[in-house]
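Schema walk-through. Below, the input block comes first and the output block second. Nothing else is stored per chain. Lengths vary across the set, and this one has 339 residues.
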Amino acid sequence: MELVSVIVLTCNGREHLEECLNALKAQTYPRREVILVINGSEDGSAEFVRERFGDFARIIELPENIGYTGGNNAGLRDARGEYIALLNDDTRVDPSWLEAMVEALRDRPGYGLAACKILSYYRPEIIDNVGHIFYRDGTFRGRGRLEVDRGQYDREEEVLSPSGCAFLIRKEALDEVGFFDEEFFIYGDDAELSLRIRLAGWKVIYVPSAVVYHKYSATTGAYSPFKAFLVERNRIWLTIKYFPPGALMLAPAYAAFRLLLQVYGVLAGKGAAGEYARKYSAFSLLKILIKAHLAALAGIPRMWRKRLMIKRRKKVSNREFYSWFKRFALSARELALKE
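--- output ---
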């Protein structure tokens, strides 16, 4: 039986840890290790876990918050498993969560990642996401987000990528492509790693029996200037690193169309842009977008160098990449006007 390393990343998330770790203790898959990465917390998380859970989790304490990417990379460097599960602290997993994902990857040697059925913690009949879909400007979104779970996603199937909230990686795939890109810090990092793994020839399986309950954006907030900046900057970097030449040239036009719809969303109070403008202001959103684009432009030379390195081990044709736009399509309207 393969060893599975479970990495739980937390940053001032002490309030979530007891439920999260108790759910991991209840897993039906017996051969596992738990690595808790404390990402610059100041809330006594380490002391709490040592007192409450003893040596159940191996603790890595980082002196400062180095983001989702840096924190998980610290855990990945310490992981010993043939499979590695990544899990947000603001979650509760079903007892068979690990077992279901391991069985799915074990039976499919060409698959490098397993995605979960992630439901809302507060309204478990509502879907948080069941894998990702993406728009032609490089923006990813949860498939099925905010739909009522009526069993419409209860079939194992290939998806574009998993959510960084909870997923399983085959160590062999990770060894081939490397860890998270720490320049992304947070947001879009799961999509970035998934595309790198896919371009190396691996696929992603969605496992509906691996169920997770998630407190959406409990750590960073659903709408914030910090999140808006990183989402926009990182989606541009993602296109630079991975999009085929034709798609890369057209991405700004698709982004412009999406932004026009988001202007309507601000005026009509719809979608993420409408919610952001209601909480802050439309002017604040405009400033964040300008700042994000300037930061993205400054980083293009670095992203281009990474693109060239990724191209050397690329095993997937541009034609297959273009097919993903159809198979895993996200419309501009859904992206701009749906919460």
